[in-house]
Amino acid sequence: MGDASVISGGFMSAITSSLRRRRFDSLVIGAGGGGLRAALQLARADATVAVVSKVFPTRSHTVAAQGGMNAALANVLPDNWHWHMYDTVKGSDYLGDQDAIEYMCRAASHLVVELEHIGVPFSRLDDGSIYQRPFGGQSQNFGGVQAARTCAAADRTGHAILHSLYQQNIRARTHFFDEYFALDFIKDDQGYILGALVLEIATGEPLLIEAKTTLLATGGVGQLFATNTNARINTGDGLAMSLRAGIPVQDMEFFQFHPTGIAGRGMLITEGARGEGGYLVNKDGERFMERYAPNAKDLASRDVVSRAIYMEVRDGRGCGPEGSYVHLKLDHLGSDVIKKRLPGIRETIKTFLGIDPINEVIPVYPTAHYTMGGIPTNRFGQVVMPIKKGAEEAVPGLYAAGECACVSVHGANRLGGNSLLDIVVFGRAAGNHIIEYLKEVRQHRPVDNESVEQAMARFLRWDARAQVEGQEETVDALRRSLQQVMEKYCGVFRDDTILTQGVEKVREIEARFQNVVLRDQSKCFNTARIEALELENLIDLGLATVISALARKESRGAHSRIDYPERDDLAWMKHSLYFKEEQRLEYKPVRTQPLTVDSFPPKKRVY
Fold this sequence. Notes:
The chain is an alpha/beta fold.
């Protein structure tokens, strides 16, 4: 960004030297489930922890998770972690790293019990044990009959987990910086990440937080798409910070479209609705999933169900006056089941559609939902960089967990119920590794002032831009353009022509971003500046997504290429790595060897 050059070196040095500064053992950026679980682990080990969040912690997007958290407790039907592992590997379309998947599935039951003990009010069976519902892509005995593995707190599971974790962090005296926006990392000349420059939204004043370790837990980037299930805050801030620091993002071509968003609006109707016995029908009243997934039917994996809905609408079997959606039927379940197991969904539908699912069908259509890709990490939460073919090393002092990270346990497609599990398992794992790291690193390393000045220059350039006359671009209009381009050119189905046009159009938006000017130069709660910073993050990640998708010439999981309809394990069973510098791609192999059991080799993925 050229505007930073108008800020003189002497002026920048003066601002940098007068910066407010705070020091902690560990900085956690993001206060969702992953960040709070890591912070709790650290605070309990007597580390000083700062949690930075651009919203009040209980408004983090984890609060919106509905359906549940997977764990092979076997409370309802027979189950074990090995079956869960198989389903996750299969669900990932064999792109998931099997060592990390084994680690997650083995830890799942322990973590659910731990959450229960800190106060998460899971729904109960008559005998008092935790209720578990069926969910998509889950089976008994390595692909056999349907499993019931998803531990639920009605349809507000994320809400229950997030509030319990926040309460425990308050008890543990975690230090919260609420409504602060993370701008960029700071580091030393050896590449150690030493904290971040953050912005206090209330005052508009920057703050330098120095820390021996920094954990990113900033969530996904669902706001890339016009119709999505994500909170407006999900703009990929941590992923974009990493890109600017020279760290690649992994597997960004794999973006999950949830099959049951409210048609035309995007609000999520949990997979738990189908887990409780709901099903999809087309305009003829046909349960069409029996044609696409004859065994699992409506509880096939999300990418399979999303493509089925898309094809029903495309082929003229959609519902409504324009045939633009299908119907989700819950009315046969009875009022007792809906009121007990799906109360939040009922309220959402009544609020936004003015109908009651106890009596009426729900119009649904696929909506952008989840970022399978992210910052590359190992199963200990360490951010890793490639150093030579097939080898990588940890970035010292930097960790990531949750949706912003790519371990990769979700591969090309995430199973429902595995996201809440992911954030809790790897938030805890990162916290444990940080504790060991802090035992070795007793002192704070000196900060490189040049990295502070670079972060400040990117922030202050908006003040310089205010002097430019005659510019017409606005943040809101450009953000809408980006979202519409991504939805049209990088959606459920893709091909070379569409993706090539998408790359060109996102690059045009990147060029237009140079002309954005802030009309509001106030400091106090200047949300216009925050939205401009978020838009820059979205553009970087939009490019990462379409460029990675154009390069992958196969169909795998959520990445469906009309021109390459088959999965190609020989050429493409590998992770993509996108670097912001020169917008280039590299690749690394999938880790197919689990920790203690035999590998699950790729085979045809059918439900």
